[in-house]
Design brief:
Layout (H helix, E strand, L loop, with lengths): L4 H48 L7 H5 L7 H10 L6 H12 L14 H36 L4 H14 L3 H14 E2 L2 E2 L14 H38 L3 H8 L4 H30 L2 H6 L5 H9 L4 H29 L6
Antiparallel strand pairs: 1-2
Helix pairs in contact: 1-4, 1-13, 5-6, 5-8, 5-10, 5-13, 6-8, 7-8, 8-10, 9-10, 10-13, 12-13
């Protein structure tokens, strides 16, 4: 090799390595941008949560007295205790300063720190939403792949039609319908499940686990029925886009069975948008469980939010609103961060 050819070879190697270097350097910038955007969104939620719920009519102090005859001095003492006698700008600065340290104040009705009430109810919500999330995600992916691979058939039409119908049904309406049919009972059909709550009480050990599972059935069925359709439709659409690709034709030409082609080649590539949807749904399910928990009297964050909203218990409502919004924002950010790892072109 001549000396003149050496610089050209080095330049070619640098040119070939260029895209890889750019991809490695692009992701940190992409990561920083998404994290900064999430931080700004959380601050916006913090500000919004303070002013939004002060538009609710009613006096929290008078509501806490339960309609009892209370003197003006006692009402003034209550307002001073909870800082409601301060100017609005002072309440706002105090709220933001404490919230940034994880202190959302003290609940008016429970007289306990908001963080403690949220921590107490959070495991119950995670049990409900986690169980429903796993079931409707698995069901949606399975039925979505089957429908796409057999598009136009009877199974595809039934699955798609049922998914669209249930996805458009309000969760609270479906929950009430299930209570009427499967809890109260209709005619000769007896009630099979509890009408609400998380436990019957008095059970221990494995009997307690079975009791909680018995109470869990109807709220989980409600969430699964309403939510699985979106995953099914997205998976089906993504897989249909992949099925016309050349690499699948090549795989079939090599003699691979259709089931093998679907599992090893088509489905993994079609799951990219589904992975994004899964992350988003996880945050959205936590935030959207309010109606279901209220209908079934489930002692989670949703039921606590409804209870706090009726007072209104401003510190508790603000803290729960921030948790719900933060769940959606953080899961959306996680989806944004995972997607470039699956498809590096996104971060370019």
């Amino acid at each position: 090799m001549t000396a003149d050819a050496t610089p050209a070879l080095v330049e070619d190697r640098q040119t070939a390595a260029g895209p890889r270097v750019r991809e490695r350097s692009a992701y940190p910038r992409y990561l920083a941008g998404k994290v900064a955007g999430a931080a700004v969104s959380l601050l916006a939620v913090l500000v919004t949560s303070f002013f939004l719920f002060r538009l609710i009519p009613g006096d929290p102090v008078k509501t806490m007295t339960g309609g009892r005859q209370v003197s003006a001095e006692q009402l003034a003492a209550y307002r001073e205790e909870f800082g409601l006698d301060l100017p609005l700008w002072r309440q706002f600065t105090d709220y933001c300063g404490k919230a940034l340290t994880g202190d959302f104040g003290t609940s008016y009705q429970f007289r306990a720190p908001v963080v403690d009430k949220i921590t107490e109810a959070l495991p119950n919500t995670l049990l409900l939403t986690g169980t429903a999330f796993v079931l409707y995600t698995a069901l949606g992916i399975f039925l979505g792949t089957r429908s796409a691979w057999r598009r136009g058939g009877l199974g595809d039409r039934v699955n798609t039609g049922l998914a669209l119908t249930l996805y458009s049904v309000p969760s609270f309406w479906l929950g009430l319908l299930l209570i009427i049919v499967l809890s109260v009972g209709i005619g000769p059909l007896p009630g099979l499940f509890p009408t609400g709550g998380m436990e019957s009480g008095g059970e221990e050990g494995f009997a307690y686990v079975l009791d909680v599972a018995h109470h869990l059935v109807l709220p989980v069925v409600t969430l699964v029925a309403v939510e699985y359709g979106q995953t099914l439709l997205v998976t089906r659409s993504a897989l249909l886009d992949e099925m016309g690709s050349d690499y699948l034709t090549t795989a079939r030409a090599k003699g691979l069975r259709d089931d093998l082609v679907r599992r090893r080649h088509a489905v993994p590539n079609a799951l990219l948008p589904t992975v994004t949807l899964i992350c988003i749904n996880l945050g959205r399910t936590v935030a959207g469980v309010i109606l279901v928990e209220t209908v079934f009297s489930w002692p989670g964050l949703g039921g606590l939010f409804y209870q706090a909203l009726s007072v209104p218990d401003l510190p508790l409502v603000q803290g729960l609103f921030f948790v719900f919004a933060a769940a959606v924002i953080l899961m959306n950010t996680l989806a944004d961060l995972v997607y470039p790892l699956l498809d590096p072109r996104v971060a370019r």
